[in-house]
Design goal:
Chain lengths: 259, 715
C-alpha cells in the first residue's frame, strides 16, 4: 500500500509563469499566489457555486448559531452530527468531520476541493478552541461550546469566516504550487528542503492574511441573515456568501501580486 | 459561472458477466463497460492456487460473493481513467461507478445496510462514488474456482490466523512477529496480479518454513487481474479492499476469526507529505478508518466473526524491521520487494525513488539492516545519486521535509496543521486524546528515524562531502545544505579564470568579467521544458531541437563547431578546446573536429591571415629587443595559425569544398538555431538580441560574445 499519486503542472503559458516564479531567486510569495490564482482561474471561478464548500461553511455558521441556543448538543444533533454527552472537543470535531465527509460524498464534481473545504472546516474548529487558550486534546464539549459562543457574535463570526476561507485558499494554493515547488529545491532560490518548507509557510501565511478581506463583510452578513432567519441560516444563504467571499479573495490575491 | 451538478465527472456503468442492467440505469447517459470473468472474451482473471491444489470444496456463498464483488470493483477501477496526472485541478479524479454484479445471494447484498457498508468502504478507499445493482448469479458464477472445504482446517493442521503476504517488508515482519512472539500459525494468503510476483512470495514462504520448523506456512494465492487489455487507470485504489476481501474469504471458510493485513503505522496513515496529496491521492488501503469500515462490512458478511487487523499499526517500518533481527530472520529481507513499480529487473528490483522505496531505504538504514538490503539492488541511490526531476525528486524531498516539520511540532500542533490525521482516530473508541497522542508519537518517532538515517549517511559520506565531491542535487545535499555549490571557489565566488595554453603549459589567465548581472546565465531542464535565465530575463521555453543544438555553442563560446558535429549531437573533445580557447581569445575562429577532419571557413581564414601578418610585424620589432620569451610565444602562436590556415585550404590554396552531407547539416542547423533564437524574441528580448548578434551559423557555427558570457547548462 502507501502509494502516492503525484501530479505535475501543465505546460500552458499561465502555468509556465508560475513555474518561472518558483525558480526565481526572489521567491515572492504574493507573486506566486497571484500567478497561481490566475493560472487556476477557470476552476476557482467555478468553485463559487461549489456544494461542498457551501456545505462546510454552512455547517460552521450553524455550529456558531447552535452555541447561542439553550442546548448546544441538541443544536449540533439537529445538524446531523451524532454527538453524545460523553464526547470531548476532539471527538466532536471528528464527528463533525465524519458528517461532512458523508455529505461531501454526494458531490463528486467538487473533486479534491471538497476535501480541502472539509480540512478547512476542521482547522477552523480546532483553531477556535485554541483561541480560548485551551488544548485540543484536553478540552471538553463545554469548552468548545464556550469558544463557539464567543464566535457567535457578528464581529467574532467575521474572524471565524476569515479562518475558514484563509485556510481553504492556503490549501488550494499549496495544492497547485507543491506540484512544482519541490522540483526547485537545490536551485539558487531554494538551496535546501527546509527553505522550500519556509516558502510554503510564507504562501500559507499570505493566503490567511489576504482572507481578512472577507472579515467585515462576513460579520455584516452573519448579523443580517442571523436576524432574518432567527439563527437558522440556510444553505442558499451560505452559497451566496461563499460565492462572494471566494471572488473577493481571489481578486485580492491577484491585486496583491501586482508590483 | 458555477458548477453544474456533476459537471466534469467521469461516470460509467460496469456490466459484470452480462448481468442485466436495472431499468433506472438504462436511461442514464453513462459509458457502459463490460467485464467478463469467463469465456473466450474473458478480461478479468479470477482463480486461486490453493494449498498446492490439494484441497477441494466450495467457498461459502457470501464469501464467494464478497470476493467476486471485490474483483469486479478492482477490474472496474482500472478500466475507467481518472484523467491522468497532468490535470491540475484533478477534476476527473473522483468518478461515479455503477456496477451490475451477479451474486449468489442478491437479497442479502441488496439490503440497505449491507449496500451502504459496501459503498462507504469502497468510497473511502477510492474517493469514488459507487453504486451497485445485484442480480441472481448463474451456476457458473457460484463455482468460483477457489475451492476450499470447511474440513480443510484439519488438513491444514490448524492455522489460527490468516496473514496477507504481499512480499514486502511489512508482511514479512508481521508474519515473523506472529509466529515468534505469539506462537501463531498463519495461513499465508496473497494476491497475485502478475506472474513475476510469484517467485519472491514463494521464496519468502519457503524461507519462513526453514526458519520456523514447527509450522509449514501453507499458502493460498488469488489471481485477480485484467487480461487481454491495457488498463487505462493504474492508481488501483480498490486493491486494499480486494486484499482484505480475499483474506476474509479464506479466513471465513476455515473458521479463523483474525486476518492480519500488515502495513507499518506510518504508511497506513500515509501522511500528506505534499499538499497536493488530498484524499485518496494518498492510498488508504490500510488506513485505520478504512479498516474500521471494512470490519463493519465483514461483520455482516461473516456473522460468526471475521476481523481484519493491522498488527503493525503502532510501529514504524524500522521498528518492525528490528523484529526480523531479533528473531533471526534478517536474511529474508533480501527476498522482499517493496517497489511500487512492479516490473523491475531482477538485479535491481527497487527503483529507489517511489514512495515505498524511499520509506524502505530510510528504514533499513535506521534499523541497521543495510547488509541485507544492498544499495546495489536500488536503481537510484536515494542519498547520493542526483535525484531525477519530477516525481522522484518531489516525493523524496517532500518526505524529508515532512519529517523535518514533524520533528519540531508538538502533538497538538500536528493535528492543527494536518487535520486529516483526525480521520485515523475512532470517535466511538474510548480515550480519543490518548489515540491522538499515540499517533503523534508514531509520527515523531518516524521523523526521528528519517533524520537519524540522514545523519548516518552524512557521517558515512563525510570524506566525499569534505572534498566537495557530492553529486549535485542528491538528497544528502538537498536535505542538509552540505557541499552546496561544489564547483564554486571556497569563498563562494565563481572562478574568474580560464585554462590557457601557453608555451606548452597550462596557466590560469584572467578573463573579462561577465556583465554585472544579478544571476548567472543558465539553462536547466524542468520536465518537458527548459528554464532559461539571462541577466534579468527568465522564462520557461520549449526544450526544442534548436535549443539543444544551441547548447554546445553556449557551453564552448568562441569556438567554431561544424554543423555536422552539432547535428550529430557530439561535443568538442577537451584537448581541442584548450587550443581553441587560446586562439579564440586572440579573436580568431577555429573549428571543432568534424567527420572529415577540422575545417576553417573563408572568413576565419582571412582573420588568421590578418593576425599572422600582425604577428610577423610584432616579431620583427621584438627581434631588436632580444626578448626570447616573447619571441617564443609569438612563434608558437604563428605555428598554430599556420596549421589552421593550411587546414582550411585545399589544392592550389583554394578553400576546401563541402560535401552534400555538410550542406544538409548546415541547412538543418541554421534553420533550427534561427528558429530557436526567433522563438525567444517574445519572452526574452535581450537574449534574443544577444544571440542574434553573437551566434553565427554556416558550415561551422560559433557563439562569439564580447564581452565573454558564462553559461551554466544542465539540460
Amino acid at each position: 500500500m502507501g502509494h502516492s499519486e503525484l501530479g505535475y503542472m501543465p505546460k500552458s503559458a499561465r502555468w509556465r509563469v508560475v513555474m518561472g516564479l518558483l525558480a526565481d531567486p526572489s521567491m515572492d510569495a504574493p507573486a506566486v499566489a497571484g500567478a497561481t490564482v490566475h493560472a487556476a482561474e477557470r476552476r476557482l471561478i467555478a468553485l463559487r457555486g461549489d456544494p461542498s464548500i457551501t456545505y462546510c461553511f454552512w455547517l460552521l455558521t450553524r455550529l456558531a448559531s447552535a452555541a447561542r441556543g439553550p442546548e448546544f448538543l441538541d443544536g449540533v444533533r439537529a445538524l446531523g452530527v451524532p454527538v453524545t454527552s460523553d464526547d470531548t472537543a476532539l471527538s466532536l470535531v471528528a464527528r463533525v468531520a465524519d458528517t461532512a465527509r458523508a455529505e461531501l460524498n454526494r458531490y463528486p464534481e467538487s473533486g479534491p476541493f471538497g476535501e480541502l473545504a472539509s480540512l478547512a472546516l476542521r482547522r477552523a474548529l480546532t483553531e477556535t478552541i485554541g483561541t480560548e487558550g485551551r488544548s485540543l486534546f484536553g478540552s471538553s464539549v463545554d469548552d468548545l461550546e464556550t469558544a463557539f459562543r464567543r464566535h457567535s457574535s457578528a464581529v467574532q463570526f467575521g474572524e471565524l469566516a476569515t479562518r475558514f476561507f484563509g485556510d481553504f485558499f492556503a490549501r488550494t494554493l499549496r495544492f497547485y504550487v507543491e506540484r512544482e515547488l519541490q522540483n526547485q529545491v537545490g536551485g539558487g532560490a531554494l538551496p535546501t528542503i527546509a527553505t522550500a518548507g519556509d516558502f510554503a509557510e510564507a504562501l500559507d501565511l499570505h493566503a490567511r492574511q489576504s482572507a481578512r478581506i472577507v472579515e467585515g463583510f462576513a460579520a455584516a452578513w452573519y448579523s443580517k441573515k442571523g436576524w432574518e432567519r432567527q439563527g437558522a441560516i440556510g444553505r442558499e444563504d451560505a452559497q451566496g456568501f461563499v460565492a462572494h467571499a471566494l471572488t473577493k479573495l481571489r481578486k485580492e490575491l491577484l491585486v496583491e501580486a501586482l508590483p | 459561472m458555477s458548477v453544474e451538478p456533476g459537471e466534469g465527472v467521469v461516470r460509467a456503468i460496469v456490466r459484470c458477466d452480462g448481468t442485466p442492467l436495472p431499468a433506472a440505469w438504462r436511461d442514464l447517459d453513462w459509458a457502459i463497460q463490460p467485464i467478463r470473468s469467463r469465456g473466450a472474451a474473458c478480461d478479468l482473471d479470477l482463480h486461486v492456487d490453493g494449498l498446492r491444489q490439494k484441497v477441494t470444496g466450495q467457498l461459502d456463498r457470501r464469501a464467494n460473493d464478497l470476493v467476486r464483488i471485490a474483483a469486479y470493483a478492482f477490474g472496474a477501477d482500472q478500466l475507467v481513467s481518472r484523467g491522468g496526472k497532468g490535470d491540475p485541478d484533478r477534476q476527473r479524479w473522483r468518478r461515479e461507478l455503477a456496477l451490475a454484479v451477479p451474486v449468489a445471494d442478491p437479497d442479502f447484498w441488496s439490503e440497505d445496510v449491507t449496500t451502504r457498508a459496501l459503498v462507504e468502504t469502497l468510497g473511502f478507499g477510492t474517493d469514488d462514488i459507487w453504486s451497485f445493482a445485484f442480480a441472481q448469479a448463474g451456476s457458473q458464477e457460484e463455482q468460483l474456482s477457489m475451492d476450499l472445504h470447511a474440513d480443510d482446517r484439519q488438513q491444514l493442521a490448524g492455522p489460527d490466523c490468516v496473514a496477507l503476504l504481499s512480499g514486502g517488508t511489512d508482511s514479512l515482519c508481521a508474519v515473523v512477529a506472529a509466529v515468534a512472539e505469539q506462537e501463531m500459525k498463519p495461513l499465508l494468503v496473497s494476491h497475485r496480479s502478475a506472474i513475476h510476483l510469484q517467485g519472491p512470495q514463494r521464496r519468502l514462504a519457503e524461507g519462513l518454513a526453514d526458519r520456523f520448523a514447527g509450522w509449514s506456512f501453507p499458502e493460498m494465492s488469488f489471481w485477480v487481474h485484467l487480461r487481454n487489455r491495457e488498463a487505462p487507470e493504474r492508481s488501483r485504489r480498490t486493491r486494499g479492499f480486494l486484499v482484505a476481501a480475499l483474506g476474509a474469504a479464506a479466513a471465513g471458510q476455515v473458521g479463523i476469526p483474525i486476518v492480519l493485513l500488515p502495513d507499518n503505522g506510518y504508511v497506513s496513515v500515509n501522511p500528506p507529505v505534499n499538499a497536493q496529496l488530498v484524499g485518496a491521492l494518498n492510498s488508504r488501503g490500510t488506513h485505520p478508518a478504512f479498516l474500521r469500515l471494512v470490519n463493519d462490512l465483514l461483520a455482516r458478511v461473516f456473522p460468526d466473526g471475521v476481523r481484519v487487523e493491522n498488527p503493525l499499526a503502532d510501529l514504524t517500518r524500522a521498528e518492525a524491521l528490528r523484529g526480523l533481527t531479533a528473531h533471526g530472520c534478517a536474511g529474508l529481507l533480501a527476498e522482499t520487494r517493496s517497489c511500487a513499480k512492479s516490473r523491475r529487473p531482477a538485479d535491481t528490483p527497487h527503483c529507489g525513488t517511489c514512495s515505498q522505496c524511499v520509506d524502505r531505504r530510510f528504514a533499513t538504514v535506521a534499523a541497521g539492516l543495510e547488509d541485507h538490503d544492498s544499495v546495489d539492488r536500488y536503481e537510484v541511490d536515494l542519498f547520493t545519486d542526483t535525484l531525477p526531476p519530477g516525481e522522484a525528486k518531489t516525493f523524496a524531498t517532500s518526505y524529508v521535509g515532512f519529517a523535518q516539520r514533524v520533528d519540531v511540532r508538538g502533538p497538538e500542533d500536528l493535528f492543527g496543521d494536518y487535520p486529516q490525521l483526525e480521520l485515523c482516530l475512532d470517535p466511538d473508541a474510548p480515550a480519543m486524546a490518548t489515540q491522538a497522542e499515540r499517533l503523534a508519537d508514531l509520527l515523531r518517532r518516524h521523523s526521528a528515524e528519517v533524520l537519524d538515517a540522514l545523519g548516518v549517511m552524512v557521517s558515512r559520506h563525510g570524506g566525499v562531502i569534505a572534498r566537495r565531491q557530492l553529486r549535485d542535487g542528491c538528497l544528502l545535499q538537498l536535505a542538509t545544505g552540505l557541499d552546496l555549490g561544489a564547483t564554486d571557489e571556497p569563498d563562494g565566488k565563481e572562478s574568474n579564470t580560464v585554462a590557457h595554453l601557453e608555451l606548452g603549459s597550462v596557466v590560469e589567465l584572467p578573463v573579462p568579467a561577465p556583465h554585472n548581472r544579478p544571476g548567472k546565465n543558465r539553462i536547466e531542464r524542468y520536465g518537458r521544458l527548459a528554464y532559461v535565465v539571462f541577466g534579468d530575463e527568465k522564462a520557461l521555453v520549449d526544450n526544442t531541437v534548436g535549443l539543444r543544438r544551441l547548447v554546445p555553442l553556449l557551453k564552448w563560446p568562441h569556438q567554431q563547431q561544424d554543423a555536422l558535429s552539432l547535428e550529430a549531437g557530439s561535443t568538442p573533445p577537451a584537448d581541442s578546446m584548450s587550443g581553441a580557447v587560446t586562439l579564440a581569445q586572440e579573436g580568431l575562429r577555429v573549428t571543432g573536429p568534424g567527420r572529415q577532419g577540422p575545417r576553417v571557413d573563408r572568413r576565419a581564414t582571412r582573420d588568421y591571415e590578418a593576425r599572422a601578418a600582425e604577428l610577423r610585424l610584432q616579431r620583427g620589432e621584438l627581434e631588436a629587443t632580444g626578448d626570447e620569451v616573447a619571441l617564443a610565444r609569438i612563434d608558437a602562436d604563428m605555428e598554430a595559425l599556420t596549421d589552421q590556415i593550411l587546414l582550411g585550404k585545399g589544392k592550389g590554396g583554394q578553400g576546401r569544398s563541402w560535401s552534400d552531407e555538410h550542406e544538409r547539416a548546415r541547412t538543418k542547423i541554421t534553420k533550427s538555431l534561427h528558429s530557436c533564437i526567433k522563438g525567444l524574441a517574445k519572452d526574452m528580448p535581450e537574449l534574443h538580441a544577444h544571440l542574434s548578434r553573437w551566434v553565427h551559423t554556416g558550415y561551422t557555427c560559433i557563439y562569439d560574445p564580447s564581452p565573454r558570457e558564462h553559461w551554466d547548462i544542465s539540460l
